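In response to reviewer comment 3 from the previous cycle, which asked for concrete evidence that the modeling workflow produces usable outputs, we include below a single protein chain processed end to end. The sequence was submitted unchanged, and the resulting structure tokens are shown without manual editing.
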Amino acid sequence: MSSFVWMKVLESAPERYDRGVRMLSRGRIDGVRAAVAGLAVRRGRRVLDIGCGTGALTLACLERDADVIAIDRSPGMLDVARQRPLPKGARVRWIEASAAEIEDHVPPASLDAVVSCLAFSEMDPPEQDYALRAAFSRLVPKGVLFVCDEVVPRSRTRRALSRALRAPLVALTYALTQTTTRPVEHLPERIAAAGFKHVAEERIWGDTFAVVQGLKPEDAFHVPPLEPDT
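The workflow returned the following structure tokens.
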């Protein structure tokens, strides 16, 4: 799924973002979002969506009667999200903020679940680690985390193929947007390092996309997130 680098181009036209991501995923991204929303909301109603974009995963959670805080750094993407038809009585807060500002908008130990889809690949590694620790501190004990994103394939052959396919797309995307995305590396290990237990990973789409979940232990104490490196 090296073509997910094109997300940065799609973000320049937020009204076409959802259609473009469905095309890049061959229509399979909606199924991933629905499955994650179902698992997350089953564990409780208070959900944070990190990097909500145009609100597709947020909507999937709202349709399951969750209370959602949805954050994204892009005002254009949030404008599209706010225009979505919502279920009757939907409870959602759309917040323009980056992952590094989670602690400014969400109280500690106030969430049952944290979800994120195709957002971590747009962060640099220090911000990714910060977001994971912030998610841990904002979850109640036994709260759950789900991160879905493009990842580095495990086999040497697949890694080489992925880099070869990605390189020209990265160059063109950077020329058009001066930004890019990068596959997330060592995601399960870093989720565990943030304090989560029972970390499980499912790889799909040729080992290039992962759904990783973690559980905040019942006896976990509050660990404040570290400041991201500047």
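The CA atoms of residues 5 and 169 lie 7 Å apart. We consider this sufficient to address the reviewer's concern, and the full set will be provided in the supplementary archive.
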